[in-house]
Amino acid sequence: MIIKGDEIVVIIGRKGHGKTTLLKALASQLQRRAIFDILGSYRDFGALVPTAAEVCAYDKAVYIPHSEAPEQEFEAFAAAVLQCGYRTIILDEAHWIYRPKSVGKNAQFVLRLGRHVGVGIWMATHRVLDLAKLVYQQADHIFLGKLLVPRDLEELRRIYGPVVNEAKELDRGEFLYINIETMKTKRIKIFKRQVGTNREVNLSNNNIESNTKTEAEEEDDIL
Ligand SMILES: Nc1ncnc2c1ncn2[C@@H]1O[C@H](COP(=O)(O)OP(=O)(O)OP(=O)(O)O)[C@@H](O)[C@H]1O
Ligand SMILES: [Mg+2]
């Protein structure tokens, strides 16, 4: 499984399924990342920058929005990232920014054209129906966890087809990975390891479990 920094990754699943854990595990493998940290839970993932405009001052930057309009702050953040290029935006609770009816200009630009300047976005949300359609249309990789209501699965089935049905039987921390280009799927599980007092996750081969036939040939290419 190869996921490139300039691609679009969407992690979906009900509350508490393990989306943030997976997003952190994926993000930790990136050399250059720009985290838009709505809930302030990625503080130890890089240098905290006081303004969105400074996000490119560090290869690993974290920006915590402080106003009641994070969408507007995301516009400034995205503008800065698009300007410097070659970074992956990490966006947890993405429904705050990619709302169905009003996606900002730069937020759209990231999805549609970000790859031309080396910019991708990896995001997570539990609000399937509250995420802009554009996100689903532009996604390269989906990690689908268990969903809360059948309506969510129906919506995803409309977009991606019956392949999403495989997500019905997942446990916490388990995801159905879908490569949108090939429509190949793979079931993965993130293992949490206790390290000292910190819990940390490593998406290396021995921490990720897969049940597909291609596992052996893909062993070196987790990310
Ligand atoms: N693979 C796993 N194995 C065991 N426990 C896990 C695993 N992944 C997550 N958890 C635990 O489940 C809880 C929820 O995880 P996490 O915060 O990642 O979920 P989430 O989907 O982001 O939830 P929310 O929708 O509330 O943001 C945490 O206590 C976490 O430690
Ligand atoms: Mg979360």
From TrEMBL:
An annotated Gene Ontology molecular function: ATP hydrolysis activity
Keyword NADP: no
Keywords from the named record: Plasmid
Pfam families linked: AAA_22
InterPro entries (alphabetical): AAA_22, P-loop_NTPase
UniProt KW Calcium keyword: no
Domain of life according to the entry: Archaea
Domain ORC1/DEAH AAA+ ATPase residues, every copy: 5-123
Protein name, UniProt field: ATPase
Lineage, highest ranks first: Archaea, Thermoproteota, Thermoprotei, Thermoproteales, Thermoproteaceae
